[in-house]
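Lab channel / #folding
Pinned by the channel admin:
"Please post every new chain as: sequence first, then the structure tokens as a reply. Keep commentary short and put observations after the output so the thread stays searchable."

First post following the new format, from NK:
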Amino acid sequence: MFALTANDFVLTLSGVVLVLGVITFTIGLFTLAFKISTSEFAEISAHSAKLMGKGLTEDVSVLVGSASSLMASITQMTKTKAGVGMFLIIVSFIMFLASYYLISRIL
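Reply from TO:
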């Protein structure tokens, strides 16, 4: 076994926290940039709009109500994905600060 001093342990710990912060930041950016505007959401929205138009012309109020609740659900899913992405980015900045604090304690 090798001898591990307290400074080496703190430096290793801060390196691990820094790497986890970079990974979390990358995942958060990926979630914000690519997961919000997927083609499935656009396709479902387009079909819902057609469904609402057909329901209005044929006077089917249940169909319009279902389509509007579907649109509300899609909007909520988009907001949830954006919230998850922002949460991951905030957690990554907290990890960056923790890593900086650990390194500054050594120096």
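NK: The helical segments are 6-34, 39-57, 61-106.
TO: also worth noting, The chain has a mean pLDDT of 82.
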